[in-house]
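Protocol step 6 of 9: fold each sequence in the batch and record its structure tokens directly after the sequence line. For illustration, a two-sequence batch is reproduced in full.

Sequence one:
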Amino acid sequence: MEAKEFLTASFDDMVFEGRNKEYGAYELRKNYDRFLMLALLIGLGIYIVGFTTPYVLSLFKTAEVEVGKKKISYTELSEPPPIDKNTPPPPPPNLPPPPPKTIKFTPPVIKPDEEVKQEDVPPPVEELQKVDPGPTTEVDPNANVNFNDAAPPVVETKQQPFMYVEQMPQFPGGEKAMTEFINKNIRYPNAARENNIEGKVVLQFVVNSDGEISDIKVLRDIAGGCTDEAKRVVKLMPKWSPGKQNGNAVPVYFNLPVTFKLGSGD
């Protein structure tokens, strides 16, 4: 590059001296300032548009609201007719009765230093012993008084048995002892043995609050006298431990199955 051109040359011309200026980098560096200014102007325009758009839209919405309003017309009403004094007034409405008036209770004022009046002081015991108590009622010893008729007889109501309670009644010694008792005392009826009758008899009875057994009923029956034999054994049972509800002994229903089965040697 000559000295005359060196004074007027730009920095890009000096950098790309002797190089291929057709390369894209030279054009980019040469037009950098112009591209930068153009980018700034475009960004500033986008910022201004974005900032002013909400304000412009609000103006359009206000105009639309004003256009959409309807004009309201008012009608003047005429004066009411004069009231006729001879016309009776309308009956009063059926209002509920007013609540009863309550009297506010005012607690008494107790003054600790207030003196007790003389008439409020009780008389001494000596004076009370001298006072005549008045007429007395004496009982004739010869009179026939029946004290049993003074009060009506008390009728005890029988408590209804429960089906289930917190603590069910139990045979003395438990279920195993009850099975041993039944096997020891049961006698196979001859009629059932001769006719090869087998089966299960189900009895229901009440274990009372004192442990006694009562009200024996048959829920399942088989022939040959097996049911009568099962009832006989139940009547031989000792007192049970009664059932309890809330810690109190109560009568309870109990179902007992008794099985009759012939052995190989029978």
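Sequence two, same batch, same settings:
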Amino acid sequence: MKKSAIENRKSKMFLGVDGGQSHTEAVVADAEGNILGRGNGGASNHAEQPGGRERLRKAILESVGEALKISDFRFQISDLFASAHFGMTGGADYKKEIIGEIIKATHLQVGHDAPTALFGATAGKPGIVVIAGTGSVIYGENEPGETAQIGGLGFLFSDEGSGFWLAAQTIRLAIKEQDGLIKNAGLERLTLDFFKVERIRDLTTAFYNEKISRDEIAALAKAAHEAAENGNSVLQNQIRFGAEILVESVASAAGRLKFGGQFPLAGVGGMFRAALLRKSFAEILIEKVPQAEFVEPVFGAAIGALLLAYRQADVEITERLLSNLENSQNR
């Protein structure tokens, strides 16, 4: 490739980054939607906590650095991107300053990961996304660009239908079972065996003393799903209750956004990989929000961030660009 062509291409590099609780993913592409590189790094959340700034910096350097290992020319992480968008778990608090020190772009935005999940799931089209992983949040955007967000205020006050929520409900019911307040449904034994403790008090004390993390508690949700699929009616009811709350949140978001006709709705996150939650959600959705078209996500959140990078630079998201993204991500 001639030097002039290389320099012209380098001036039109776009970056999308999805920063989460478990890992950080970066995607670099040109102005036509051809993906040039992808990279992964560590967790990039909780930048305000001790060691968090260093962890965030390392995750960005790792993920973007790996994505920039492009074979046909050299592009350094210190070079100027045409546009870069970072969708971060927990939003931009404490993160924008750090990211701005590392990444230089004509258009740089650091925001919440919910818009990136939506833009990835619907390929940039108006609609609603339900994110249900360790936490949960419902986010939507309509044609005029108005937005609505339901939930997402953290495990203590919000996040119904999430992995942590289901795990916490299981533990609460296990405590009631232990205290003889409800019939034995095997929840105490399920909890004790999963965490390898002799008493539930050992588990709760460890959590309050920060010896067990929120993510470790949330991992119980998978075991709870398995028990429900094997016939545990108490947990089946809890999962359906969580699905109902998620659907009610979708209905609220759709009302705020004035979606009168059909609109795409996608579910992402670990909870939607569980058959029972997905089935319950789909059944309740048909009944309560029939105008919602429950669709499979087109792209992941990192490409959603890339699409937002295009939008903030006024690059039109055409069918050709989307086709290039789809084809190049599968290479």
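Proceed to step 7 once all outputs are recorded. Observation for sequence two: The first strand starts at residue 14 and ends at 19.
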